[in-house]
Predict the 3D structure of the following.
Amino acid sequence: MLLAGLDVGTTSVGGVLLDGERGTLLAATSIEHHAACAGEHPWERLQDADVLLAAAREVLARLSAGRAGVRGVAVTGQMHGIVYVDRAGRAVSRLATWQDQRGARPGPDGRSHVEALAARTGHALATGFGLVTHHHDLQHGGVPATAVALCTIADYVAMQLAGRGTVPPQDPSQAAALGLFDRRAGAFDAQALQRAGIDPAWLPPPGAAGAYIGQAADGAAVFCAPGDNQAGFLGAVREAPAAVLVNVGTSGQVSVYTRDATAVDGLELRPFPGGFLQVGAALCGGTAYAALERCLRRACQVFAGYDGPPLYAAMERLAAAALPAGAGRLAVDTRLLGSRDEPQRRGAITGVSLDNFTPEQLILGFLQGITDELGALYARLPEAERARRRYLVGCGNGLRLNPTLCRLLAERFGLPLSIPVHAEEAAFGAALCAGVGLGLYPDLVAAGRIIRYR
């Protein structure tokens, strides 16, 4: 039985095709979508929803080329962001992504928009959360006149693939990422919505991973999937209670499974099948390392006329060579986009000396900075939760392509690190949801037993 999973990410759309019965990865592909677009305001972070949809269709076509009978497909993707749709299900706005900063704009009383909304509703919120964006748009005339609903980009792509004219059922993980969600009840907080002045009719209907959405033009059944963080956990972790998942891609995340719904300061409690994930989210992660690569490549262009490919392979060699030096490293704060707690914070480089002011130490410093931010987020977990973890699972290209970063993380967390044999872990997790929806697997725990590590 052929299962496809799609992951509509911040910079690329990835996909996998599985033989669900044999647990074999048949194909995997990823394309950069170049969907980012300029807004009217400097605080907007926007992408073209239909460019993302076209990229998702292209990935699905590549996966199924020369193969007949894809039975099921599920779509995950970047969380928190929203796109507005009209009565026919067409996008009537750009996607305001999870990086959007309109919630950080100051209000008349000096507080940011998100701070004022959090105080009014009693919910922990961050700029970039979909309902923070929506509330701001309601207050400032930013909602398109023909809009009747909002959804995530994964919802939008699944809706279009299934030929629906209405927003499909939404997994609780995606709903919670919008904000004003009661995790214990598994539903949006009606009183908080009322205090915020948000009509529940704007919101997607509730669903669950593996819920049927509709049928694609080629006959494949389309199913609901969780957000990319939860889908990545499903697609990378075999033993949820024993593992810590570290993901370094465009952003960075550290996630652990728990049945305890107790909130932990500085972490996000996200719905997950059978329990919850405690998630520490770094806004930059791999974006900080990409910024360093662009800086170094620009220097090579200006001073040496370099016109070659990106420098990541050379950067990894330099970092590995610098690693034994140990003491005297540069201290790099890689929070170039701030943090959930401090959206206005920016990065810094300290501890510069004549001995360590070198490219290799700068590269190593950035990798250590990414590691330290994730390690600090993990340290917020209660000691009893951390004591249950026996191994790290690493995913995302930021880890797959950087052995030095893998080593730094293993040292910081004090746990051995494993990497799945398959890439595109979130798409893999989405494909498993399609398998559950089709009845191939009894549940997601059973589906995860096909995961293998290097």
